[in-house]
Amino acid sequence: MLNFLRKLSKKESRELENGLAQNGLEFDSQEAAEAFFFAQRDKDLEDIKALQERFPELALDLKARSLQRMEQFYFSSFVDGTNAMDISKERMEELLTQYMRQIFVAQEMAEWAVFENDFAAGRYELGLMYGYGSGTTEHYARNLDKNEGNKNKTYLFDKFMAYVPKEREAEVM
């Protein structure tokens, strides 16, 4: 039996719902949210392309191994300080998230989607709809340097590979 699970009190449930209702940005319609988020995504992907041009050793080929190179680059830039960067750590984390999402899309494992908040009508977030019908707005790289389970600095690669069927592993590498 799972002894650490317990039913939330009504007050705790309300507080959780109120907190979740703050997620996302407010828009008048799904179409307006999609226009905004897809334009933001496109800008992020252009910034990733510029990063690739500036640092060709990253070899951003939309394959799983490139996540390892990006993550190593992130740590060398923002933790070890061996790469001089002119973007903030937070911006780099957002670019890492968008790049990982784009790999899911490029590998035909997911599609870009804009989701309305289940707890607040009119609030939206960008994310992915996986091929098996589940969606996520997870920001994979947020606070990547503080992830205690990332001793090998391969969190993004490991996370991605957890979604890859065994028969496709060689293909996505």
Q: Count of DSSP helices? A: 6
* Succession of helices and strands: HEHHHEEEHH
Summed up, the domain count is 1
Q: How much helicity do the residues have?
A: 40-55%
Number of strands: 4
Distance between the termini: 39 Å
Q: What proportion of the residues form beta strands (DSSP E)?
A: 5-15%
Architecture overview:
With 173 residues, the protein is of the alpha+beta class. The protein has one domain. The chain contains six helices and four strands; from the N terminus they run αβαααβββαα. Strands 1, 2, 3 and 4 form a four-stranded antiparallel sheet that branches. A hairpin with a 6-residue loop joins strand 2 and strand 3. Helix 2 packs across helix 4 and helix 3 runs antiparallel to helix 4.
